[in-house]
Every structure is written in structure tokens, then in C-alpha cells.
Amino acid sequence: MKWFWRVIVAVSILGTLVIAYIAVDIYRFSLQDQTQPADAAIVLGAAVWEDEPSPVFRERINHAIGLYFRGTVSAIIFTGGRSSEDLLSEAEAAKNYAVEHGVPADIIFIEVESTITFENLSFASQIVEQEGFGTVLLVSDPLHMKRAMMMAADLGLEVYSSPTPTSLYQSVRTRGEFLIREVYFLISYDLQS
Q1: pTM of the model
Q2: How far apart are the first and last CA of the chain?
Q3: How many Å apart are CA 117 and CA 99, to the nearest integer?
Q4: Domain total for the chain?
Q5: Residue 185's domain spans which residues?
Q6: pLDDT of residue 102
Q7: 177 in any annotated domain
Q8: Would you say residue 158 lies in a domain?
Q9: Other CB atoms within 10 A of residue 29 CB
Q10: What gap in Å lies between CA 176 and CA 74, rounded to an integer?
Q11: Is residue 142 within 8 Å of 31, Cβ to Cβ?
């Protein structure tokens, strides 16, 4: 019976070490910025409050707007569908916001069907293919980048990480919660792949 408890303890320690390794890997990846000239930026969707981007989503959109005005990208792809409470899809709200901030509407592409990160990227990859974009920058919150980049690579996109330089996830608590969520979603994605 003693060996049984030793196995339980060993498995628990091993599981904890694996989770800690994944968390550190996600955090380390969040510090990488591969921003470089590319054909387009894919902006991963986030919450919309009625018809306005949430503060988190606004940070992503602002980053993409900056990439466009600096000449780093010549097109922007906004992603994200609409929840039952929202007036607009995430992508439509993002497009409206970007146009209000001087981005020409004709360089903005939207997909309005997705509800999760993999769908964001899957539908965006169709736009990338249709428009003949070669290289793409992926825009999201830093802690979201590891999983999103894995998914983009699995979809065959030539993509580079361009995390938002600012994030509303600033406190230890909010960053910790985001990191825990990402560990869970990354493990889930790995197990499904």
C-alpha cells in the first residue's frame, strides 16, 4: 500500500512540474515581439460592449492601427463574431473604431462568424489565402500569443507574433488569472491536436 501513495505523490509532483513548465513557457513567449514588415495583421477578437470594443479589445485594435500607420502592414484583418447581447460583431466594432481613427475602410477585412481563438484564425486564414497575403502579424495580448501562434502555425499561416505593447492585464491577480486560463487552454488544445 505504501507504493501506491508514493506513485500518487510522484504523479502529483510530475503534474505540477509540467503545469509550471507550461506556465513559464507561456510567460517567456509573451515577452517576444517578432513585429516586422508583413502584408497584413490579424487582430484576434475580444469582447464588445454593445457596439464598442471593450478596453482589452481596444488595445489590440490600437496596436494594429499603429502598425498600419507606421507602414509595417498594408492591411488589417479583424476577427470575431457577435454574442446575443451585442449590437455588432467584434470584427464590425473593430472596423468602425479603426475607420474612426483614420484607417481606410478598403484595407480592412473582417470575419464575423468566429467565437473562439481557433475559429478567429481559421476564418482569417481564408481571407489571407483569398487576398494572397504572404506574411502576417498576429495581434493579441502577450499572454495569449503562445497558444494563438501554435494554432496559426497548425493552420499553415506564415505568422509573426506582434503582442500589444500595453495590456489592461496589469495586476498580479489579473495576469495570474489570464496565465492560468492560457495554461488550461493550451493543454486542452495540445490534447485535441
Answers
A1: 0.90
A2: 37
A3: 24
A4: 1
A5: 28-192
A6: 98
A7: yes
A8: yes
A9: 18
A10: 35
A11: yes
